[in-house]
């Protein structure tokens, strides 16, 4: 049974108390070796768990996530704590007055928040190399990156230390680390999951989403976070494979898996993907630069040096370019939606390769080395550019470094993606596995 | 706790330098290892000057050279007033400070100005950025020949046979001049590559300096530098550095008044004329002085370098705040038209372009509307109208990121 549902059922049945689960989880997280956790929320977790236990004791319904521990990327508001977005700049800020809306909904469903999790500063990167908290390590090979910017959220679920977590995805920050750590990660249709109380990055593209170890957990979390049931899926899904840009700079194993999953599916080539990705890159820099301009003027040296230079450059972008990119996006989105109107699921790589080594965080793009921090999102960025939902799924490859793909849908088409992913999971084509190796003992 | 925003931070590179000095003090290279490091340091110095040559934009000098009176005043400050102050300091300190440290103090007064921080501080103080680019670049170009000559003239008689050796001229030509000229002549071929890959070259640049410093301090440690030096010596160096910097700034301030320079040009004279380049100075010392002496000679430069950053950052911020009020509404207007973080999702968002509200002085260097700033003066001007200052240590990274954004903009507009 899935991790989330397994905990919830046992807590609801009274087999185990939410407090026991929380204590056990907190102890494991305190010793986690992947540098995924930034703050352990011991008091809060035990309070929330005690409330769940009281409801169970009174024969009440604590919700579908009763006693399920989870963590959030360091950009969700947690009442009483500063929202740092992974930056030392806001470490001393006033505590948030309320929980983020997503956290509030999870709490209402019985989930227990136990930790905040590492990220690239201000979510600007695909590597989770953080100047304040250090680099998050990949549980499948701790000498490698976990990807980013939601690297802490991905690593902690991949390590089996939490059954789910929340991250955010602006250009691929959920899908890339999900692929690199071998778990499921959802970037929803833009705006469908609640963004209230999260630290923004580039609001044209920002979304939040869960990381889970299987698809059943993903479904229940989507329903809790969206506040509604998934639509019913009828009939065979209409599947296509994305070609052109999405078959370049991709791992051959992923392309082979895509062809094996849908051998007869048509190849669809989206137009002008390079332009779309460039427009996404520019809008992100422009919006991110504008967002942080005041702090950059006030305390530039308090930023992570890698992020600071990128944000400063973005702050210097002429407005005309941002406006041009926005105009292009509007026309481009309409064009792509027409093109994919006849399909429910589009298959494409999410990350271009397996997790790069921490010692040399570069990947090969068009035959030349490129910084992983900026380039791991080449296949995800054009999709979030037009706000489509995309579910990152891990190819089941026990004993090897994780790789995966993204299932892309039409707007609000998450149900079709979940149904298709569930079928692949049943067939043993996709699925997560707990990392092996000597470090596993230390992590457990 | 938040740091007070008006205080500039410690230059991170200085922390690296201190780390390397500490490493050399604890684990100095000796014997065969020292010889190997000497060879590596020689190669690193040649590489550094090759890159300096390749990076220096002759076009920037040519474009800004019209303001010749200002450039002459900056050059006079760098190569005339500074050495005179250095000689006076040497005469005063000669009796009670270690002779090699005195040589180091005098040596730093002979060095060219910095390029990046001079421009950044000028922009921050709302001075004439284009003139600062020209002046600082010109100072560096001339310094490649003039500084070694001045070292020969000023330091040889001052320190006797133990200081400067005219045989070092060959070393200068081989290690500094030839690679510099080669790099500069190859600029038409490799200049664009160098400009595009500044972020990759920065570690080469800085790594080379660290290597030279490690080699120099290893030799100095083996030679007993820490037996000769104590805290009092370091405090003396800091005090003497402050005296030199203050004297030069007072001279330049007075000369700017005398010459009735416009405010923007007076700022250039103050900031370009008061800087000394660590990046040029360390390898030059490596080429000009005996290995065992280099550590002692560059120590004053390292202290002066940090002091000048602190003082100039403070002064530039004051100048910036005191700039004519006419620019304040401009900055406010730009703030208004730039996208509000919460709003730009609406498409198509009609945002008035910034160009019409850019101050005329800045407009000259910002470039055409919609053009991504690339040249240092364009970057400084664009930053200025947004109320930003590009810290010197970010200049290379910001430039590299703007180059990447320019590639994406070209693709968007194709």
Gist of the model:
With 444 residues, chain A is α+β, with helices and mostly antiparallel strands. Helices cover 38% and strands 16% of the residues of chain A.
Topology:
The complex is a heterodimer of chains A (444) and B (414).
Chain A: H1 3-13, H2 18-30, E1 37-40, H3 42-57, E2 69-73, H4 101-108, E3 112-117, E4 129-130, E5 134-135, E6 137-138, E7 141-145, H5 151-158, E8 164-169, H6 175-181, E9 184-187, E10 207-212, H7 215-226, E11 239-242, H8 252-261, E12 267-268, H9 273-298, H10 305-315, H11 319-339, E13 345-349, E14 362-365, E15 368-371, H12 372-375, H13 381-384, E16 390-394, E17 404-408, H14 414-426, H15 439-443
Parallel strand pairs in A: 2-3, 2-8, 11-12, 11-13
Antiparallel strand pairs in A: 1-3, 4-5, 6-7, 8-10, 9-10, 9-16, 13-17, 14-15, 16-17
Chain B: H1 12-26, H2 31-55, H3 58-64, H4 68-93, H5 99-108, H6 116-124, H7 129-159, H8 168-185, H9 187-196, H10 198-222, H11 225-228, H12 231-258, H13 263-272, H14 278-288, H15 291-322, H16 327-337, H17 360-366, H18 376-385, H19 395-412
């Amino acid at each position: 049974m899935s991790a989330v549902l397994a905990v919830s059922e046992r807590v609801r049945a009274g087999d185990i108390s939410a407090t026991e689960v929380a204590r056990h989880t907190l102890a494991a997280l305190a010793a986690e070796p992947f540098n995924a956790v930034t703050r352990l929320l011991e008091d809060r977790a035990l309070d929330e768990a005690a409330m769940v236990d009281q409801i169970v004791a009174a024969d009440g319904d604590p919700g579908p996530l009763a006693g399920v521990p989870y963590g959030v990327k360091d950009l969700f508001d947690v009442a009483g704590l500063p929202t740092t977005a992974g930056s030392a700049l806001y470490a001393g800020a006033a505590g948030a007055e309320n929980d983020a809306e997503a956290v509030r909904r999870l709490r209402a469903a019985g989930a227990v928040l136990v930790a905040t999790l590492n990220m690239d500063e201000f979510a600007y990167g695909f590597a989770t190399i953080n100047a304040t908290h250090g680099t998050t390590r990949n549980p499948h090979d701790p000498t490698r990156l976990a990807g980013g910017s939601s690297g802490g959220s991905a690593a902690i679920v991949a390590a089996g230390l939490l059954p789910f977590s929340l991250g955010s995805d602006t250009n691929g920050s959920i899908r890339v680390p999900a692929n690199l750590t071998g778990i499921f990660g959802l970037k929803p249709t833009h705006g469908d999951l609640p963004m209230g109380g999260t630290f923004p990055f580039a609001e044209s593209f920002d979304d939040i989403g869960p990381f889970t170890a299987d698809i059943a957990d993903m479904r229940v979390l989507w329903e809790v976070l969206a506040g509604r049931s998934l639509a019913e899926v009828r009939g065979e899904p209409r599947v296509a494979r994305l070609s052109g840009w999405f078959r370049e700079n991709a791992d051959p194993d992923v392309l082979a898996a895509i062809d094996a999953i849908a051998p007869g599916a048509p190849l669809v080539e989206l137009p002008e993907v390079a332009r779309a990705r460039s427009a996404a890159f520019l809008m992100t820099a422009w919006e991110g630069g504008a967002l942080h301009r005041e702090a950059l003027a006030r305390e530039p040296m308090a930023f992570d040096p890698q992020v600071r230079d990128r944000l400063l450059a973005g702050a210097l972008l002429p407005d005309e370019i941002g406006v041009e990119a926005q105009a292009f996006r509007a026309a481009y989105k309409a064009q792509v939606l027409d093109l994919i109107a006849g399909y429910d699921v589009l298959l494409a790589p999410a990350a271009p390769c397996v997790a790069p080594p921490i010692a040399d965080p570069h990947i090969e793009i068009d035959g030349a080395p490129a910084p992983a921090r900026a380039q791991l999102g080449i296949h995800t960025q054009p999709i979030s550019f037009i706000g489509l939902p995309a579910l990152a799924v891990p190819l089941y490859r026990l004993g090897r470094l994780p790789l995966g793909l993204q299932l892309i849908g039409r707007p609000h088409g998450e149900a079709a993606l979940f149904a298709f992913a569930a079928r692949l999971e049943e067939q043993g084509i996709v699925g997560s596995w707990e990392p092996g190796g000597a470090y596993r003992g230390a992590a457990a | 706790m938040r740091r007070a925003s008006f205080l500039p931070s410690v230059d991170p590179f200085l922390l690296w330098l201190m780390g390397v000095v500490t490493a050399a003090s604890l684990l100095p290279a000796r014997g065969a290892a020292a010889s190997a490091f000497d060879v590596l340091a020689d190669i690193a110095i040649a590489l550094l000057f090759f890159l300096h040559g390749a990076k220096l934009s002759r076009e920037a000098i040519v474009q800004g050279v019209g303001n010749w009176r200002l450039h002459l005043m900056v050059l006079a400050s760098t190569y005339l007033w500074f050495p005179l102050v250095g000689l006076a300091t040497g005469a005063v300190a000669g009796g009670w400070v270690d002779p090699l440290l005195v040589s180091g103090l005098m040596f730093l007064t002979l060095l060219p100005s910095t390029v990046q921080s001079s421009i950044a501080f000028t922009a921050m103080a709302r001075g004439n950025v284009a003139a600062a680019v020209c002046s600082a670049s010109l100072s560096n170009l001339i310094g490649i020949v003039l500084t070694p000559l001045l070292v020969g003239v000023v330091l040889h008689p001052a320190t006797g046979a133990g200081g400067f050796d005219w045989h070092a001229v060959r070393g200068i030509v081989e290690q500094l001049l030839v690679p510099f000229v080669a790099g500069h002549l190859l600029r038409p071929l490799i200049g664009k590559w160098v400009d595009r890959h500044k972020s990759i070259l920065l570690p080469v640049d800085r790594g080379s300096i660290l290597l030279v410093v490690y080699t120099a301090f290893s030799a100095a440690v083996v030679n007993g530098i820490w037996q000769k030096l104590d805290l009092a010596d370091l405090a003396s160096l800091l005090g003497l550095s402050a005296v030199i910097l203050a004297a030069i700034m007072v001279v330049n301030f007075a000369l700017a008044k005398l010459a009735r320079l416009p405010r923007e040009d007076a700022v250039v004279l103050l900031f370009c004329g008061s800087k000394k380049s660590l990046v040029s100075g360390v390898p030059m010392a490596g080429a000009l002085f005996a290995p065992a002496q280099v550590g002692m000679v560059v120590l004053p430069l390292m202290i002066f370098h940090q002091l000048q950053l602190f003082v100039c950052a403070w002064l530039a911020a004051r100048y910036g705040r005191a700039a004519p009020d006419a620019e304040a509404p401009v900055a406010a207007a730009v703030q208004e038209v730039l996208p509000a973080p919460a709003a730009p999702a609406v498409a198509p968002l009609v945002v008035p372009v910034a160009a019409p509200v850019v101050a005329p002085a800045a407009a000259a260097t910002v470039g055409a509307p919609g053009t991504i700033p690339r040249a240092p003066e364009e970057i400084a001007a664009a930053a200025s109208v947004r109320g930003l200052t590009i810290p010197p240590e970010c200049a290379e990274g910001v430039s590299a990121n703007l180059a990447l954004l320019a590639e994406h903009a070209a693709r968007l507009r194709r």
